[in-house]
Amino acid sequence: MNAEIHVLDHRSHLLEPSHYYRMRFTPGAHSARHVRRIVRAYVIAWGMAPLSEVAELGVTELLANVVKHVPDSLCTMLLRRRERGVRVEVHDSDPALPRLRQAADWDEDGRGLALLDLLPDAWAAERTGPRTKMVWFELYSATEDPG
Predict the structure, then answer these.
(1) Which of 64, 68, 77, 82 would you call most buried, defined as having the most Cβ atoms within 10 angstroms of its Cβ?
(2) Separation of alpha carbons 66 and 9, rounded Å
(3) Confidence of residue 110 (pLDDT cuts 50, 70, 90)
(4) Does 30 have pLDDT greater than 50?
(5) Has residue 102 got a pLDDT over 70?
(6) Exposed, middle or buried: residue 137 (CB in 10 Å: 0-12, 13-18, 19+)?
(7) According to the model, what pLDDT value does residue 118 have?
(8) How far apart are CA 136 and CA 89, in angstroms?
(9) Contacts from 22-25 at CB under 8 Å and sequence distance 24+?
């Protein structure tokens, strides 16, 4: 197992496995590369290759926020095939909701949520319990009507 990604739970029991991927892990500095490969493989297998690049970028930003802001860095990533596209969720143990802010030109960070605000078709952050939250985004297939 890669030292940068410690998989604690890997199950696909809630939905048909071909429509759902769940991974619970502690991301490290290089974990995003491995998770991007997983996201790309599923999105392409689902016949939605044009959504892959934005899905990979979005999950990278969400994992970077986990590494930076969540004390234990433990998270669960859910990748779901939807009738109209793809949904990516990242659950973690920091109840503080992320805030969209305007990064100055010289700031080294602070642009991740701005990307989430521009690239996916929808995104949000919500508390899922007294000490947990979920940040998610959805991408809709160009051939599907998001309704």
Answers:
(1) 77
(2) 17
(3) low
(4) yes
(5) no
(6) buried
(7) 83
(8) 4
(9) 22/76, 22/77, 22/78, 22/79, 23/76, 23/77, 24/74, 24/75, 24/76, 24/77, 25/74, 25/75, 25/76, 25/77
